[in-house]
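A.,

Following up on our hallway conversation. Structure tokens first:
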């Protein structure tokens, strides 16, 4: 689905290919047309790499046997994530695997399908992109854009004032505006993220942010009631269980904005017990350290996000983008990655490892991975839904 300010047709102009798809408007829409000669005139060297990367990630002709395992990135309760490379193109991806055995044991059919549905609707420079999904007898697979870098939680502690983790206001603004654009893309599609926090955001090798991990995201049809998320970042209406909407993501963004400049979360910073954190979120007033002056634009911006009356946040991302704190922010340069990033994480060079892997005669394919997890499974007993994985 293409939303406001989205675009299409660039592949045909850049690669001189015939168009392979049609675009259908679901409602009244205004579409601006850029002809070939004008397109080539306005595209410069700074934009071309972004467009080429987008085109690579739109190539869904990749098949599972074309992928070669390089290394494991991480392991969770229901599967693992690997770096894989395309055998002939050399393109790197992240491959998330989900064990069918675990899906059945924990009745995860709906959540796995929902994660796929949500991610296929997203195509934004600040959101990790799903290329396609696969399945075999053992697992289902999510082939993702590989986001190399460092999670934002660690990054802000690298670039902040020593021993405090504080960011300068301009650094805070850079990250907050990036996340506003990512949330705008989600909310235009009625998708609520529900677990926005620094650990779910990666600072990539260019210093820009990518939102990852959509396991808790949901397409809203009215209000939803599930108590889900990370306690320190959960909005009051989630805790109260009376139903909530998209504005819970703006509360979480407000928690992050406070954390960026104050070095800790505003409610329950020293608590680990979720119920004690919930109580403080619901009952305590927002307090600021003396270093953040009363009346500052940044403080006013954050207080709007952290208003316990969700109706104040209900005006949404569009209203926050117009806040006086962001009056002179260069949104277009941010999208084109033309603003200097606060921090460039150091990442390992995988080129030699990739060459060594591809040069061997015994290449490991993703389906060859052996599941070694012997954790006891849930005693849930249920029938497997028929064709639950038909779209994978």
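Then the amino acids I'd put at each of the 392 positions:
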């Amino acid at each position: 689905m293409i939303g406001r300010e989205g675009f299409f047709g660039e592949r045909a102009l850049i690669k001189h290919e015939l168009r392979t798809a049609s675009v259908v408007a679901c409602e009244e829409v205004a579409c601006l047309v850029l002809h070939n000669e004008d397109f080539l005139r306005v595209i410069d060297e700074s934009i071309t790499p972004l467009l080429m990367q987008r085109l690579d990630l739109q190539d869904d002709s990749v098949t599972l046997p074309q992928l070669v395992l390089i290394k494991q990135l991480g392991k969770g309760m229901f599967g693992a994530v690997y770096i894989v490379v395309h055998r002939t193109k050399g393109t790197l991806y992240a491959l998330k695997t989900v064990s069918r055995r675990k899906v059945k044991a924990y009745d995860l059919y709906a959540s796995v399908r929902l994660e796929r549905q949500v991610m296929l609707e997203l195509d934004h420079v600040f959101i990790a992109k799903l290329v396609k999904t696969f399945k075999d007898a053992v697992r289902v697979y999510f082939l993702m854009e590989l986001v190399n870098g460092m999670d934002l939680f660690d990054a802000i502690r690298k670039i902040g004032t020593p021993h405090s983790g504080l960011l300068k206001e301009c650094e805070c603004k850079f990250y907050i505006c990036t996340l506003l654009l990512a949330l705008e893309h989600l909310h235009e599609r009625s998708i609520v993220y529900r677990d926005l926090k620094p650990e779910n955001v990666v600072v990539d090798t260019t210093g820009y942010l990518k939102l990852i991990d959509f396991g808790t995201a949901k397409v809203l049809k009215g209000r939803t009631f599930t108590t889900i998320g990370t306690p320190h970042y959960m909005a009051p209406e989630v805790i109260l269980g009376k139903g909530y909407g998209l504005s819970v993501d703006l509360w979480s963004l407000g928690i992050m904005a406070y954390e960026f400049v104050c070095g800790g979360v505003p409610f329950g910073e020293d608590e680990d017990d979720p119920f004690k954190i919930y109580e403080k979120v619901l009952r305590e007033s927002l307090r600021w350290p003396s270093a953040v002056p009363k009346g500052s634009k940044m403080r006013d911006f954050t207080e709007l996000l952290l208003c316990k009356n969700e109706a104040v946040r209900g005006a949404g991302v569009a209203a926050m983008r117009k806040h006086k704190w962001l009056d002179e922010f260069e949104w277009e340069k941010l999208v084109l990655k033309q603003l200097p990033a606060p921090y460039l994480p150091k990442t390992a060079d995988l080129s030699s490892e990739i060459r060594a892997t591809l040069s061997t005669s015994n290449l490991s394919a993703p389906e060859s991975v052996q599941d070694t997890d012997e954790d006891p499974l849930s005693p849930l007993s249920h029938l497997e839904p028929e064709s639950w994985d038909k779209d994978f």
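The mean pLDDT is 87. Curious whether your intuition agrees with the design.

B.
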